Amino acid sequence: MTQIPIKITTESYLLTGSGEGDVLIDADIVFHPLGYPHFPGRRFKGLLRESMEEVLEMMGHNNVEGTIQHIFGKEDRDEGDGIIRVPNFFLKGWRHLKKQTKAKAAEYAFQPAFIKKYFTTEIQQTAIDQNSGTAKDRSLRNYRVLKPSNDFYGTLEFAESLSEDQQTWFKYALANLRYAGTRRNRGFGKIKVVIENETAIIDGSTKDNSGTTLNTNSNTLNIRLTTQSPIVLALQLGEQNTVSTERYISGNRLRGLLANTYIRKKLKAGTEPHQDLNFFNLFLSGSVQFGNLYFNNTVPVPLHIHEFKGYTHESMPPVNVFQWKENSDYGKYISKPIGGHGIMVDETDKHKIKKCSPSTSFFFHNSRYMRKAGRSVEQGSDTGVEGGGGIFYYEALNEDQTFEGVITSADSSLLETLYELINETATFGIGKSKSAQYGTVMLEAFQSERSKDAEKNATLSNGIYLLCLQSPLVLLNEYGLPSPTKAALEAELMAKLSATVKVNDSAVAFTTVEQYNSVWQSKSGKYAAYKEGSVFVVEVSDLANSVNAPAQLGEWNIQGFGKVRWELYNVGAAKQIEIMDYKPSDTNTNGATESEILTEIKQAYDKEKEIIAIKTKAIKDATAHHKHHQLKNHLIGRMEMMIKNAQNMEAITKWFNDIKEKPAEKSLKSAELLDDVCKFTVKMNNTDLSFEKSKCYWLTFFQTFRKLNRS
Questions:
Q1: Which residues of 523-534 are buried (b: 16+ CB within 10 A; e: fewer)?
Q2: 307 lies in some domain
Q3: Residue 96, CB half-sphere, CA atoms under 13 Å: how many?
Q4: Which of 151, 354, 605, 678 would bridge 109 by S-S if both were Cys, CB 3.0 to 4.6 A apart?
Q5: Is 182 left (phi over 0), alpha (psi -120 to 50) or beta?
Q6: From CA 72, how far away is CA 698, in angstroms rounded?
Q7: 494 and 431 in one domain?
Q8: 420 and 475, same domain (yes or no)
């Protein structure tokens, strides 16, 4: 895999629009949740594609369209099939900077609001009426833009090695890319893009996996997935212009991710995957079960644990609805499931639940029917296309979040193959828009003799149990149709246990699941299913001998569906339930040298803090002075102009000497602002202030005096 390190330098104000604003800002730029600006990968890919096309046309290339599609993918597909992958571009030393910022999050200087203020400025523009020559009514627009002279870094990656000609094309295309963002025809968006170090164009995309082995007796492979960029696991929730994201990585996605990686790395060109015996055994035979990966190894909070609407957890602790619904004391309260995911901690007389959910962000994008600059199709054109494009939002899981789960198989050799595949690959792509900005993850595989979830499952004998769903459960009736019903569940359990099974009670929710075939580019029909977190009170009888509780039920088990957990249910042993907020461990910077950017931000904050103190003192002094002295606005204006234009203290002294024995001097002395040697009489707190800070004090002093005159 070829990699090209890139540096983007802003040479003018840059407006990479976020699609959002607020009360005071009409158009804002894109920010990382920590407050730092970045250059979005999707936009850079589009700009680079257009620049590359221009370069190839200028060079007289004989197959411009085919070459562009090979590198960047087809424009009419949601998922790019080109060889390029474009990341987001961040400030220098981004991972180090991000880690240190999180460690200093308690300081106001490193809050997102101040970090945004440090890197940006606000610009106002109006539209001019052609008839009157004045600003049009309601035309004022306020833009927050990125300041010039900021550098952003990232690395272009390619699925195959680039030839010398292709590398030359990219050098020219990057040099040709000179403008980006909104309002380029108004002076914004000038950028310079260079290869950071031309000798750094490298090939290689594998991890050092030397010395790692897998215990051949293990039947479980623990998986840890860490997001390296935002990832979009598409979930359509009804908003037409917004693509939401799942909060966990399903076993189906994990299976598809590893299957695609196996095809790319292990199969010879032209080999059909299903004809490869290893591929068939790993992904098609059902010999390997791919579990869901949950954030920080959490589990769905069982739906029978309810909180009371309108009450805090302290005033009304959550309860087990199976145990209180007959209690008249609670009859007047309205409850709802806590829901979500969490870490369950069981003690002797207490259930503790640490609520834990991954963080997400929304990203704005626009699309054009024809994506070439200056060639967008307009509404009513001869093409017959209605409109020239649209806007949409992606909700994405933020980077640097960890999801954990397990892959199980009775055949340890299959797990060993997956272990080697995962640990020899540097990064993986998952979800939507993997070719630009989104979807980069790192996978780690490590062994475990038994999964944690397996240890929680009970050994079943005749009795009453809680059956908790850890993932959606797909049940089919006798006609092969999806049927999330009590009867279908009882039939499934009786077939699994060869015993009489009755569902006495339940706290459930429903969902729909569907499959997606990337080869066919189509989805299956939607299947109704019990949602993860659903809980059933199950009574087992006529069981001849104790048996191991089944860890999976229903259909599509190899894709993570139907994973269950059993608990012995004792009606009389009610436990107190406590909800706690999950608190991640403090970020450890390992004593590393503080980033230069952080040092500059802290210096800017200290300077602003000092300026605020100076202005506060000036306002206070001016207010006190105004009570006993008067000064005309005309003279105040002269003083303000003189102070603004002065380059040093000698210029001010010269101005005072020039007004000696003139009315201005008499007025200033009468107001007790000037002494006999032409120096200000009002004293500042710090006499050692620099000249610029002294100017700030006196400008604020006279501006306040003018306002007090008006009042």
A1: eeeebbbbbbbb
A2: no
A3: 12
A4: 605
A5: beta
A6: 59
A7: no
A8: no
pLDDT beyond 80 at 69 = yes
pLDDT band at 681; cut points 50, 70, 90? low
Asked if residue 179 is part of any domain, the answer here is: yes
316 part of a folded domain: no
Q: Which long-range contacts (CB under 8 A, 24 or more apart) does 44-50 make?
A: 44/8, 44/86, 44/89, 44/154, 44/180, 44/436, 45/72, 45/84, 45/86, 45/435, 45/436, 45/437, 46/371, 47/177, 47/180, 48/72, 48/86, 48/173, 48/174, 48/177, 49/371, 50/371, 50/372, 50/373
User: How much is the mean pLDDT over the chain?
Assistant: 85
For residue 444, the SS3 value is strand
* Residue 675, token pair as written in the block: 């002494």
Angstrom distance (rounded) from CA 401 to CA 360: 10
Q: Examine the domain organization and report whether 88 and 106 are in the same domain.
A: yes
* Distance, CA of 208 to CA of 443 (rounded, Å): 14
In this structure, are 276 and 259 located in the same domain? Answer: yes
- Find where tokens 């246990």 sit: 497
Tokens of 412: 């340890």
Task: Please report, for the domain that includes residue 508, its CATH number.
Answer: 2.60.40.4350
Please give the tally of structural domains in the chain: 4
pTM of structure = 0.83
pLDDT at res. 244:
92
Cβ proximity of 539 and 462 under 8 Å: no
Give the least confident one: 159-163, 364-368, 491-495: 364-368
Q: Give the integer Cα–Cα distance in Å for 680 and 76.
A: 71
Query: What's the 3-state SS for 359-405?
Result: CEEEEEEEEECCCCCCCCCCCCCCCCCCCCEEEEEEEEECCCCEEEE
Residue in the structure block whose two tokens are 């994008």: 365
Residue 434 belongs to domain with CATH number:
3.30.70
Question: Do residue 572 and residue 611 come from a single domain?
Answer: no
Token pair in block for residue 560:
């993570």
- Among 13-17, 29-33, 83-87, 130-134, the minimum mean pLDDT is found in 130-134
Lowest mean per-residue pLDDT among 158-172, 429-443, 547-561, 676-690: 676-690
Residues 616, 692, single domain; the answer is: yes
Answer yes or no: do 441 and 468 share one domain.
Answer: no
d(CA 553, CA 345): 25
Angle at 263 between CA 411 and CA 44, to 5 degrees: 130
Whether 322 is in a domain gets the answer no
Give the structural domain span for 244: 220-297+358-372+387-449
Residues 530 and 467: beta-carbon distance below 8 Å: no
Tokens of 361: 């962000």
Q: What is the pLDDT of residue 454?
A: 45
351-388 pLDDT tens trace: 888 888 899 999 988 876 555 544 444 444 444 444 55
Alpha-carbon dihedral of residues 276, 282, 286, 287, nearest 10 degrees?
120
- Which of 402, 418, 449 is where one domain is finished? 449
Q: What is the largest CA-CA distance in the chain?
A: 116
Measured CA to CA, the distance from residue 189 to residue 15 in angstroms comes to 7
Residue written as tokens 């006495």?
A: 504
Same domain, 285 and 409: yes
Q: How far apart are CA 649 and CA 565, in angstroms?
A: 79
Question: 581, 611, 645 — which closes off a domain?
Answer: 581
